[in-house]
Amino acid sequence: MGNLFALIRPKHWTKNLFVFLPLFFAGELGNKDLLANCLLAFVAFSFVASAIYCINDILDIEEDRKHPKKRYRPIASGAVSIRTAIIICVVLVVLAFSIIYLLSQTNMWQQIFILVCYFVLNILYCFLLKMIAIIDVMIIAKGFVLRILMGGSATNIELTHWIIIMTFLLTLHWLCKASRRFGNTKK
Predict the structure, then answer these.
(1) Angstrom distance (rounded) from CA 42 to CA 16
(2) Per-residue DSSP letters for 115-183?
(3) Model confidence over 60-73: pLDDT tens digits?
(4) 135 CB-near residues (< 8 Å, 6+ apart)
(5) Phi-psi domain of 104 (left: phi exceeds 0; alpha: psi -120 through 50; beta: other)
(6) How far apart are CA 154 and CA 22, in angstroms?
(7) Residue 154 contacts residue 107 (beta carbons within 8 Å)
(8) CA 159 to CA 151: how far, in whole Å?
(9) 56-110, pLDDT tens digit by residue?
(10) Which of 74, 92, 71 lies closest to 82 in space, CA to CA?
């Protein structure tokens, strides 16, 4: 069971807390209904992100096996089979979209569209775009923008252009600093 948790990387779900930023900036964190909507969006986004981690680890299996730290990842180490990872990925995606479709109280189709955009963008990232340095960090920064858009959609809180631009720029700045400090930004 520990290997499955390592595969879906729940510790990385903290990134999805950006979904709550619209609530915070609107001063609505105490609104239980909006908080519940945001929590559903957070869980759905986290499941999609975990599905992407599964896909990324499947695609990078050979590289990860040669890496001093990544070789211990569940798929690279052989602790989780590729078949199992694919099943988990599909289940996570189905759960994510089902949560929004069945439980969303506001802007269901908009939230589904945002999840689809995030999923497709990250699939492209996994297959191709992570190889292109500047595009790499821009895709990751765009993911944070999609998170706040998801939070705004889930709560029906209109976002200003400034919060969207600042989220993108601050994330891009942090990623560029991190890439210089740690040598890369790959997931």
Answers:
(1) 6
(2) HHHHHHHHHHHHHTGGGSHHHHHHHHHHHHHHHHHHHHHHHTPPPPHHHHHHHHHHHHHHHHHHHHHHS
(3) 999 999 999 999 99
(4) 129
(5) beta
(6) 10
(7) yes
(8) 9
(9) 999 999 999 999 999 999 999 999 999 999 999 999 999 999 999 999 888 999 9
(10) 74
